């Protein structure tokens, strides 16, 4: 009798399975229930980039900001991004076609301009477009051309080293950088399913070369010009939603009056390259009540921002405070909605950016799936 019951049970399973169309994908079910997440950005020097997948929020990917310099796009187009978390900048060297012949006198004037934070609107052309739309940007490194001779030689400002974590940093302040990391000259060519990177010190008469093959499991393949080696930085394409990082943004003296590129602390970017979108919800009354009562049916699809990685950006905190409450703190009148690359929705709000002693670089947030 026991065997008859087992046979009947197996028959029912087979019958149910036979009702499923072979063309139907299995229904995806979020495995998360929501939690509080601490982002280890490294205290007031904010030495780390922290990549977070809300579907697996306990497992963060963390790297030092100086672990990479260039990111090579793995899609159909050939685009290369800079590491804005260390204030890198880049410019074409005029009339340079042979990387080996470029010398210090060819770039001396450029070095004064290829900087972040000069309060000159014109210097935006030396950095990546801060909205993250690297496929359409006209700044930074140009699209890599098929014809080798059409690819220019660039002067690369390698940005700044990390600050000493043992230095005396006042509570509520940050120290994001120390000495300059120096300069390189580079030229990037296309290669079969990838890139050919040539790089050297400014006065070098020979270059080093590295072949970078596109790994399409990731949005970018990364490379460190100082070590001459590839680096693993971002998780796989759909395995991160948001990241805590320092950031090269555009700053404005007044609405519409750009002061060029500027270096930001306590910044959050979203994975727009994989379709992540987000928007801010401002609570008209009690934040707890507004957050707790917010449901999937309350999501305003028209407000979701998928074309700007700064959808959260610096909107979650203030670093200058108000006249009533000076200093850095997390805004208590807002939370955010995020839609991940697989179409799941979350609400999240930020709880702190400092530890109990008032030291910056200790962020946390809570989230719930909708």
Kindly describe this structure.
The protein has helices at residues 2-18, 104-111, 287-293, and strands spanning 35-39, 48-52, 61-64, 70-73, 80-82, 89-92, 154-157, 183-191, 194-200, 208-213, 220-224, 229-231, 242-254, 257-270, 277-282, 317-318, 329-330, 334-339, 345-354, 360-369. The protein is globular and about 65 Å long. It has 370 residues and is mainly beta. The chain contains three helices and 20 strands. The chain is 9% helix and 33% strand. The two termini are 46 Å apart. It has one domain.
Strand order of the largest sheet: 1-20-19-18-15
Separation of the first and last Cα atoms: 46 Å
Task: Report on the biggest sheet.
Answer: 5 strands, antiparallel
How many domains, as an integer? 1
| Total of helices | 3
Q: What's the overall average pLDDT, rounded?
A: 90
Q: Extract low-pLDDT stretches.
A: 1-32
The outline comes out as globular
């Amino acid at each position: 009798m026991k065997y008859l019951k087992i046979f009947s049970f197996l028959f029912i399973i087979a019958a149910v399975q036979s009702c499923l169309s072979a063309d139907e994908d299995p229904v995806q079910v979020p495995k998360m229930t929501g939690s509080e997440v601490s982002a280890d950005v490294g205290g007031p020097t904010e030495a780390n980039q922290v990549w977070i997948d809300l579907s697996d929020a306990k497992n963060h990917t963390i790297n030092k900001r100086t672990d990479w310099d260039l990111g090579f796009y793995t899609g159909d187009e050939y685009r290369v991004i800079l590491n804005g978390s260390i204030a890198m900048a880049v410019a074409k060297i005029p009339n340079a076609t042979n990387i080996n012949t470029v010398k210090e006198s060819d770039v001396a004037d450029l070095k004064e301009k290829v900087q972040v934070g000069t309060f000159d609107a014109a210097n935006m052309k030396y950095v990546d477009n801060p909205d993250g739309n690297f496929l359409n940007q006209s700044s930074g490194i140009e699209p890599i051309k098929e014809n080798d001779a059409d690819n220019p030689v660039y002067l690369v400002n390698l940005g700044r080293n990390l600050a000493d974590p043992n230095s005396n940093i006042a509570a509520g302040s940050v120290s994001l950088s120390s000495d300059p990391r120096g300069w390189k000259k580079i030229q990037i060519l296309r290669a079969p399913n990838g890139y050919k990177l040539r790089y050297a010190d400014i006065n070098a008469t020979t270059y080093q070369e590295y072949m970078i093959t596109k790994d399409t499991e990731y949005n970018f393949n990364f490379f460190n010009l100082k070590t001459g080696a590839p680096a693993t930085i971002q998780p796989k394409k759909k395995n991160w939603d948001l990241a805590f990082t320092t950031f090269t943004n555009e700053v404005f003296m007044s609405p519409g009056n750009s002061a060029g590129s500027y270096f930001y602390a306590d910044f959050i970017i979203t994975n727009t390259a994989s379709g992540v979108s987000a928007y801010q919800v401002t609570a008209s009354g009690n934040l707890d009540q507004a957050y707790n009562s917010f449901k999937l049916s309350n999501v305003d699809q028209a407000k979701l921002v998928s074309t700007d990685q700064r959808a959260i950006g610096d909107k979650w905190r203030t670093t200058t405070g108000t006249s009533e409450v000076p200093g850095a703190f997390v805004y208590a009148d807002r939370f955010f909605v995020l839609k991940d690359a697989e179409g799941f929705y979350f609400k999240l709000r930020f709880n702190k950016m400092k530890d109990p002693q008032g030291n910056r670089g200790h962020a946390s947030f809570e989230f719930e799936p909708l």
